[in-house]
Each structure stands twice: as structure tokens, then as C-alpha cells.
Amino acid sequence: MKNIYKILLAAAGFGLLGVAAIFLLPRPEKVLAPLPEPPACGVDHEMFVIRGDSLAPQFAAGQEVKLFFDYYDCHPLAAGDAVAYRWAGNKDAPIAKIVKAVAGDHWRMEPVSEQNAYQIEVNGQWLANSAGELYQIPEKKAKLLLHYADSYPEIPEGALLILGNIAQGSDDSVRFGLAAQENIIGKIEP
Predict the structure, then answer these.
(1) 3-state DSSP helix/strand/coil percent for the chain, to nearest 5?
(2) Phi and psi angles of residue 159, each rounded to the nearest 5 degrees, phi first
(3) Which CATH number belongs to the domain containing residue 177 in this structure?
(4) With a threshold of 0.85, does the pTM exceed it?
């Protein structure tokens, strides 16, 4: 019986040596060659001209900006990003807007009765434009966005809230509701 255990232990020992030898043997050079560097992301851009004044004073009408088409291939969308957005209401060119809320953000609209308008709150903060003015969307213009706020108190996956700098709203989420993330063309920078 002792001889059987010795044979089994010897076989197990040779097996371990064989496995160790596989890991310790030099590998062919092809396997050791460095992996190629992944392509840089978010650096290729084209020049884009801002049309209209809905982003003033942050971006002026006629101002040339850089449009980074592949920026969001390796960076998440974030509130505060200026973006180019493909909107069916303007088929000639993308519109430039600012991301104000992304998927997972909590938001609501509250009436400002003396102004006959609605303010927008995101994650406990009232939204303001780049000049520091609170957005106050007139009651007549707020109906669609108010419907979205009531239906989706948390911005759903794949959606975002985009606005211009006009405190009463412009051709932005006030006009077409929550924006589809898939229609973001890229990030805009001066």
C-alpha cells in the first residue's frame, strides 16, 4: 500500500513540475511583443460655427469652436458640458446646448406664481444659466417639459436635460423634452 502512495505522490510531483515548467519556460517573442497603444480618444476635432445666440455669453453667434466627435467614446457625459446635438427640428445643422442633467439625476419643476413660470431643480439645486440667472420657463412653454418632469423624476438611462443660456428656454429641452443621448454628436470647446 505504501508503494502505491509513493507512486501517486511521485506522479503528482512530476505533474506539478510539468506545470511549473510551462510557466517558467521562455515564451516565443511574438507573445512577449508589446500590445499596440489604443488610439487617443477625444482629441480629433473639427471647427464648428455657433449659429444663434442661445448660448451667449458663453459662446457668441459666429464664434468658431472645436467639436470633438469622439470625446464621449471614452469620457462620460457630465452636467456643464457644452455639446452639439442632432435635433429633428433643425436638420441643416446640429444645435449647440449645455448638458444640465444626466441619467440618474433627480429633477423637478416648481411654479413661480408671481412670474407665471416654472423653475427647474436638479439634485436639490435650482438651475441657472452661465450668467447666474435662474431658468424661469414661462407657463405656456413649460407644458412639455413639465410632463417629462412629472413622468420621469429621475432622468432615465440614455436621456439628458439640455438647455441654452436663455433663462426662458430656447430650442432645447424646453421645446422637445428630454434629449436622447444617442443624438449627441460631440463635445464643444472654445
Answers:
(1) 25, 30, 45
(2) -125, 160
(3) 2.10.109.10
(4) no
